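pasting Large ribosomal subunit protein uL23 for the record, 96 residues
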Amino acid sequence: MELLRKPILTEKASALTEKSNRFTFQVDPKANKLQIKQVIEKMYGVNVLAINTMVVVGKVKSRNTKGGLVTGRSPKYKKAVVTLKAGETIDYYANI
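structre below
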């Protein structure tokens, strides 16, 4: 099971990182906070102070086709916001 799926690199997540040393990841929906903390500390070598998780519901999307209106939904996912100890940082591109 791959616990950390990918980092979330949006404007809002970048502002959180600059303002309050918080990093955002998309994680496995079955993962709990303790598992996420262990993986992040092991993978990046940092001290995690707090983790906030949330389930992001997918957007409803629709489009017009020859057959009529087609509606669907983008998939839901779980997001984890990780607060690190002051002075520590995560380099997303170090493990590529």
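The chain is about 25% helix and 40% strand.
The longest strand covers residues 48-56.
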